[in-house]
Design brief:
One of its GO terms (cellular component) is cell envelope. Pfam families: SBP_bac_8 (PF13416). Belongs to the bacterial solute-binding protein 1 family. InterPro entries: Bact_solute-bd_prot1, SBP. This is Sugar ABC transporter substrate-binding protein. A hairpin with a 2-residue loop joins β1 and β2. The chain is built from 18 helices and 15 strands. Helices cover about 40% and strands about 15% of the residues. α9 crosses α10 and α17 packs antiparallel against α18. Strands 1, 2, 3, 4, 7, 13, 14 and 15 form an 8-stranded mixed beta sheet that branches. The protein has a 5-stranded mixed beta sheet with strand order 9-10-11-8-12. A two-stranded antiparallel ribbon has the order 5-6. By secondary structure, the chain is of the alpha/beta class. The chain has 2 domains: about 180 residues; about 220 residues.
């Protein structure tokens, strides 16, 4: 049995407290004021939130916000370690697949009483964002931003193959023949002799430019590709969302979708998983090594950066048998249940979700803030820079989005499903068997 240090044991006792106002935690008390530790992972958003922190301190001279930015993978590892040691940040940026484990172990402060006390209008946020963060009458986060998915493509490459914007804006897809999406991918795949994937002499073993760059390190949700197309094929992750308890990864509609992605590899239109470059897909696309990929709205600045030599543009996801479907995901700011400064932490979270901060974030044109009014300002900021990114907001207006699953055991489910999907694209298992086996393991977690 693992032996806990006294400090960790005390922290666990603190985390077990269910009262709205408990006094424990680790934020340092500065002379004549309070210092709050705030964590986030996105370096591109850091300048916007530092601006918010500065404005917040100006309005509240007795509160200083210290921001720590850490890359995604290390972020969650560090957070778990800090929570175990009883020295977690007062406030952190939270994500829907991670927060259930924190909520069920009483590590997050219930914000609902504070929201009601201060009359925070949750209806001002993008529809559905606030609902994800509530369970059994408690609320564990205040919405900060949201994202949807679209295609990003190399306009020069596709134009050389005769593919125009109007055609790319109306792509279709199905798992049988791939629809016009597969045809566009084939046309934009080039072998080392310059022949595209529709040429009878196309050499699938010697590729210069891949028509499609898939994402396989995508957990159990497939947000960056297979999940969106699976939903467009009629697949639903689980019995209800949020807080469902029975997953449906054994659905034939998902197996058909994963099989189609494997087909792209077999045809030479997408790189083999075991031979895939260690360079990020976004960098490969920006370097002209790929033609099309699925991306999220949080990456817009990556592709619109003036330093990118290739000319890139965005297009809607294709329409599938069940329509066009884009995952929508929203981040939130949460307060650690063990903070010594609950009122100050709540004041900071409330400010992060306010128009003043979210309008500042919008002006940086990196993400779409959660407030509907701030989203419009972000879209205007993109347009002012000459960036056509309306495809990311059009899907919400057309109600073509679906929420990513929010359940317990999220971090355990991720590797089970990801390993199954990867085994299929490696040719080690059939989609039906791999996904059924994974689904059985996933649902066993809830028994």
């Amino acid at each position: 049995m693992r032996i806990l240090h006294r400090r960790a044991a005390a922290a666990l006792l603190c985390l077990a407290a269910t009262s709205t106002f408990v006094s424990c935690g680790s934020s340092d008390e500065g002379s004549g004021g309070t210092t709050l530790d705030y964590w986030l992972w996105d370096d591109k958003q850091l300048p916007a939130y530092q601006e918010c922190a500065d404005a917040f301190h100006k309005a509240n001279p007795d509160i200083t916000v210290k921001i720590t930015q850490t890359a995604w993978a290390q972020y969650w590892q560090n957070l778990t370690t800090q929570l175990t040691s009883g020295d977690a940040p007062d406030v952190w940026t939270n994500q829907s697949s991670y927060y259930p484990q924190f909520a069920t172990s009483n590590q997050l402060l219930d914000l609902q009483p504070l929201i009601e006390r201060d009359k925070v209008d949750l209806s001002a946020y993008q529809d559905g964002l606030a609902d994800v963060w509530a369970k059994d009458g408690k609320r564990y986060g205040l919405p900060k931003d949201w994202d949807t998915m679209a295609l990003v493509y190399n306009t020069t490459m596709l134009e050389k193959q005769g593919l125009k914007k109007a055609e790319l804006d109306k792509l279709t897809w199905n798992p049988s023949d791939g629809g016009t999406l597969e045809r566009a991918i084939a046309r934009s795949t080039l072998d080392t002799k310059g022949r595209n994937g529709l040429d009878p002499d196309f050499d699938r073993k010697h590729i210069k430019v891949y028509g499609f760059l898939p994402e396989w390190a995508d957990g159990s949700q497939g947000q960056n590709g297979w999940g969106d197309l699976a939903a467009a094929n009629g697949f639903r992750y689980l019995d209800k969302n949020p807080w469902g308890t029975h997953y449906k990864y054994d659905d034939p509609k998902l197996a058909e979708t994963i099989a189609w992605f494997k087909h792209l590899i077999d045809m030479g239109y997408a790189p083999r998983f075991d031979k895939q470059s260690t360079v990020a897909n976004s960098e490969l696309l920006s370097a002209g090594k790929g033609a099309i990929m699925v991306t999220g709205s949080w990456t817009i600045s990556t592709f619109t950066d003036p330093k990118v030599k290739e000319k890139l543009a965005f297009a809607p996801l294709p329409v599938g048998p069940a329509g066009r479907k884009s995952a929508i995901n929203g981040l939130a700011d949460s307060v650690w249940a063990g903070t010594k400064h609950q009122e100050q932490s709540w004041k900071w979270v409330k400010y992060l979700g306010s128009a003043d901060c979210q309008n500042r974030v919008a002006a940086h044109a990196v993400v779409f803030p959660a407030l509907k009014s701030a989203t419009r300002k972000a879209l205007a900021a993109h347009e002012a820079k000459g960036h056509d990114v309306g495809v990311f907001t059009d899907v919400t207006a057309a109600k073509e989005t679906f929420p990513l699953p929010v359940t317990e055991h999220g971090t355990e489910i991720n590797p089970l499903v990801q390993d199954a999907v990867q085994s299929v694209v490696l040719g080690q298992a059939t989609p039906q068997k791999a996904l059924k086996d994974a689904n059985d393991k996933v649902n066993a977690l809830f028994k």
